Amino acid sequence: xxxxxxxxxxxxxxxxxxxxxxxxxxxxxxxxxxxxxxxxxxxxxxxxxxxxxxxxxxxxxxxxxxxxxxxxxxxxxxxxxxxxxxxxxxxxxxxxxxxxxxxxxxxxxxxxxxxxxxxxxxxxxxxxxxxxxxxxxxxxxxxxxxxxxxxxxxxxxxxxxxxxxxxxxxxxxxxxxxxxxxxxxxxxxxxxxxxxxxxxxxxxxxxxxxxxxxxxxxxxxxxxxxxxxxxxxxxxxxxxxxxxxxxxxxxxxxxxxxxxxxxxxxxxxxxxxxxxxxxxxxxxxxxxxxxxxxxxxxxxxxxxxxxxxxxxxxxxxxxxxxxxxxxxxxxxxxxxxxxxxxxxxxxxxxxxxxxxxxxxxxxxxxxxxxxxxxxxxxxxxxxxxxxxxxxxxxxxxxxxxxxxxxxxxxxxxxxxxxxxxxxx
Length: 424
What we know:
Number of strands: 17
Distance between the termini: 44 Å
CATH class of the largest domain: Alpha Beta
Strand content: 25-35%
Helix content: 25-40%
Strand order of the largest sheet: 3-2-1-4-8
Largest sheet: 5 strands, mixed
Shape: globular
Structural class: alpha+beta
């Protein structure tokens, strides 16, 4: 998809951009590079090793676009603007979307105009591997950013690009996703994303596809997505114009040292103000804690009173909410009533799909709020689509809340619920 030319030499002071292949550095795919800062067409090309880039040792500014499948882009709103509190709160606020332990994940974010946060979640081991291999080649990246955010940002519309067996989609300033490639018809994940955007009243006005492959049927895509679909002959890489990445993964402990040093003078006045603020904030927090403790005690008293009125025969009340839940469950069991959203019916409905899918590896399962959450490993995105469709055919609502590419395959998280239609 990407063609390049080899320049006579690279000048120090320019910015070197890299497009890292999926699975790098373990895999040895083509690394696309481009030099920014000069006049005319930016020199660009592709190599298999970083040291094959001409003049690579003289590069002082390096930006790397990382594989989209290695980072989850999402969005959240938190009631704080404190950087420290945001970093503490993000793993808990996004717990349902996480695959893996929070302490093994790195969270980077950007504050958007509506005060919400655009968040990028990447495995720490993957991020460290990128930085380490770039450093071994004499490169000190100033930023890392998921590659779908290199696609052009079109006001009111989405943009997409085919890349090997994937389709990269950019949906906003710092939002996007990756899905399995499909030429003649749009992939189901893209259809789902458009449908959910319509439900939230943020649907795009259209979709621009960059340099589509032969066989791409824009009319079929437009009909199936119910969107205006346009195409551009230029590929996104050689025509990318944004000078600043929309979301830099190098934050916190991974921030470049030059960036930290540049911030030091500005932080000195803040440090003085922080010392003054801490004294006042400590007193306020103690008062707030006392208020919350008093509110908690009042609510617990109300719960205990409600429990005793509902179950006057209960002698001991330790945890009124849990005891009430158990007693109600006992009453339902004695009445012989159950629903399709109970655990056993849900397990019975998914069992045939799991048995019929030998490539599906079940890593974990959770049940709550009448839904099952499955942590699975699949060989590729296409198999994930097949399994998802199999669950749907059995009358289940299926939501993909996470999908990351790993050397072992695709690690995903599926949330399943029962619709009104019974499976067969």
